[in-house]
Amino acid sequence: MLHLVLAVLLLAESSTNVDSSPLPGAETELMSENNAVVEGDVLLRRERNAVENIWPTLEIPYRISPELAGQTDDILASMAMLSKPTCVSFHEQTSETDYLLFNFSKGCGSYVGFIGGEQPVLIGPACSVGMIAHEVLHALGLYHEHTRADRRKYIAILPDNIIKGTEGNFDVENGRTFNLSYDLSSIMHYGRGVFSANGLPTILPKKSVKDMGQRVKLTNTDIKKVRLLYSCDVHE
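RE: above sequence
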């Protein structure tokens, strides 16, 4: 399926009690007659289905909307965060027909994997460098860490605390794990209180961790996933 994943914005990025929360109104803004919302923060195109693919190139073109002039430095920093430890690089689009288009929106969002053509990455005023990197990782083909099929060994989902109608945010996806260990600190993991109806946790880790839900840096696991997904060891 062709997924458009809305970012979960952080209320705080401190190293302790890290939490994340959705930006109100972002889902409604992105809905249209061609899109359907599933899993709370995922849009599906009604007119077509596709399997998520990696980009056919390691050198990914991009354009930044003029409306995002004030956030250009953050967007560039997010791409640098991904390119420095991997073989994937980013350059301004010239004549390429397939490219990332950073567009202004209320919240952050991205399709999962390569879709071809002008591929939007949505950036809101509150999106930090780490949040934008999170979205670009979606565009490269990565799902949220907490949707892994083996998550029960590492986290507990508390459905009684989840806002009614948003339970789908915690559904399991069939993303590739590359046999890497589950990473509670991944930049792709939700925080404890995401979509909480009562201020209580919706996700509890089964071991002590201070930075679950952080949007500050890539972990070694995040980097390894990109490197494996794009066969960096072969290309370097």
